[in-house]
Design goal:
80% helix; rod-shaped; exocytosis; Sec8_exocyst_N; transport; Sec8/EXOC4; protein transport
């Protein structure tokens, strides 16, 4: 018993020194290999068997003493093992579901991208249809603007419509006739504006002077003033040249009055466009600039300058002659007895 106890103690000390279970086996092998006598080996073997039997008895006693705890531990371990197994199965199922969702999301993404592209295409088509509908109304609106002499609105509308017809709507075959019509109107639009510009530049301004002279003559005849007809005073008359020459008073660092006035000129559709002749001519020049016909306008003014000045002289002569004749008639009638 003492020997068995020593062997068990030696084996336990060996096991405590080394956590490896193979340490005990190595120690036994080393003890047996160093012993030359068979009796010693048998003795060692007996010690080992006795030590193992004692360990078995101790283990049985411990099992009997801690049976309840052991049973509970085994059941708990079994339950934990089952839960881990179930969790692994669930995780595997979740992974499979995630892969399936990923594939479905890819399909949905492609479908959503396709629908998004189709939505953009439909929106573009609707915009083109709205633009076509608006352009179809351009000839009628253009005629109304031209009739009311709102030339700047007409020019903007015409230029915008032609740019659309020759740009985004170029491939629309159903608009070919309208495209030719509006392009032709755009090519001839500047002729109308130039004629209006000449009318205000040469005729409208001189008519205002003649009208002022007639009013002065009428007043003088009412008061029976025998003094000669005063000369036409044009020094204070607002002309386009005087309107633009105010730019000479602008500072070098600031923009000229000519540029500022032309940029700030706007057309009021509620008012008579010809009420202010200077603003109306600014509108005409702005329209010609939008049509890119300024060189043609300058050339037309230069070509017609002499002819228009001769017409001014002719009309002025006629007005003066008519005024003098009428005044002479009035004086002759006043000197005759009733």
């Amino acid at each position: 018993k003492m020997a068995a106890g020593e062997a068990v103690g030696r084996y336990r000390s060996t096991m405590s020194k080394s956590k490896d279970p193979s340490g005990l086996l190595i120690s036994v092998i080393r003890t047996l290999s160093t012993s030359d006598d068979v009796h010693d080996r048998e003795t060692e073997k007996g010690r080992l068997e006795e030590a193992y039997e004692k360990c078995d008895r101790d283990l049985d006693e411990l099992i009997v003493q801690h049976y309840t705890e052991l049973t509970t531990a085994i059941r708990t371990y079994q339950s934990i093992t089952e839960r881990i197994t179930n969790s692994r199965n669930k995780i595997k199922q979740v992974k499979e579901n995630l892969l399936s969702c990923k594939m479905l999301l890819h399909c949905k993404r492609d479908e959503l991208r396709k629908l998004w592209i189709e939505g953009i295409e439909h929106k573009h088509v609707l915009n083109l249809l709205d633009e076509i509908e608006n352009i179809k109304q351009v000839p009628q609106k253009l005629e109304q603007c031209m009739a009311s002499k709102h030339y700047l609105n007409a020019t903007d509308m015409l230029v915008s419509a032609v740019d659309s017809l020759e740009g985004p709507l170029l491939q629309v075959e159903g608009l070919s006739d309208l495209r030719l019509e509006l392009h032709s109107k755009k090519m001839n639009m500047h002729l109308v504006l130039i004629d209006e510009l000449h009318r205000h530049l040469y005729i409208k301004s001189t008519n205002r002077v003649g009208q002022r002279n007639k009013e002065k003559g009428r007043i003088s005849s009412l008061v029976k003033d025998a003094s000669p007809v005063p000369l036409m005073d044009v020094t204070n008359l607002s002309t386009p040249r005087k309107f633009l020459e105010t730019s000479q008073f602008s500072t070098p660092g600031s923009s000229s009055m000519r540029e500022t006035s032309l940029l700030e000129i706007k057309e009021d559709t509620e008012l008579d466009p010809e009420e202010n002749s200077t603003v109306f001519m600014g509108v005409l020049i702005k329209g010609l600039a939008k049509l890119k016909k300024i060189p043609e306008t300058v050339k037309a003014i230069q070509d017609r300058l002499e002819q228009e000045l001769k017409q001014i002289v002719k009309r002025s002569t006629t007005q003066v002659a008519d005024s003098g004749y009428q005044r002479g008639e009035n004086l002759s009638q006043e000197n005759q007895p009733r």
